[in-house]
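Many introductory courses stop at the sequence. We go one step further.
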Amino acid sequence: MNKPIRLGILGLGRIGRMHLQNILTMKEYEVVIGVDPFLTGQTERELRGLGLPRCGKDPQAVFGDPTIDAVVICSVTETHSDFIMRAAEAGMDIFCEKPIDHDVGRIVQALRAVRDANVVLQVGFMHRFDRHHGALRRAIAEGRIGKPEVLKIISRDPAPPSMKYIRESGGIFVDFMIHDFDMARFLMGCEVTEVFATGTSVCDPEIAENGDFGSGHAILRFANGALGVLETSRRCTFGHDQRIEALGSKGCVMDDNEYENNVRLFGPEGYTGAKVPWHFPERYKEAYFVELADFAQAVRTRAAPPVDGFDGLQAVLIAEAANRSAKTGRFEAVQTVVV
């Protein structure tokens, strides 16, 4: 019987706490310690109440512990590449939330450290692990819609995050649409060569005042000649709106929202239906478990993880091209970077 993989968790904010709660229920793992520089006494009591055995503020408590097998990086983006390199130096396998970094040069450094240390790096693009998205990808890969021609992805959050987060996030294309850039590559099975992007902050003018868009749109050109049309918004009053459609030479495949139930009530005044999940923790609850189970499998078998550092790099390169396009008003080529 395999021993549990001993984990250190770096970052105990919203996503770190969510991963912690999931991991504590999984037989594949044993959590050793969680660290966060902003840890308070109240937060520590809450985390211990969840079952976290040890808390701290210093990341070295993780990297200096030779009993830890792997780390889960959920800290602020600016720390990701540094933590990846420190984990690789310590011989620890790595699960890192997206993006790897805002700086491509730092990403390349981190990926080289991972390669040289021969450790596993999986990036947290949880959309890939959703069963509905997976079924849509299989339909495309199996040729059921013929040659893919157009891919459409809609991703909308129920409400904007704090303005502090907006200022520090890297922008809607890096922080939010990066999931859709990754999904576009994943679904189409080929690379993106060019991006045209634009945005608006009609939904919340304060977002523009803080240097970002409230809604973003992007057109992608794929290497196989197909187009991608992506739309995202930081405000969607009815919940977390996630829809995908792929049109091909022989047909079309669609992936609708999840609903609380499939009941539709019809009457003289029209019809009503159930609500969609409010936000991403509810919508992708199952996917978060699947991605961590797959990470455990990669660690134990020393196999390539299902979404690796190259995938993380490509998503950032597409996001960078989108940022450039939003400023220049024209298609921008996606940079090619050799690790």
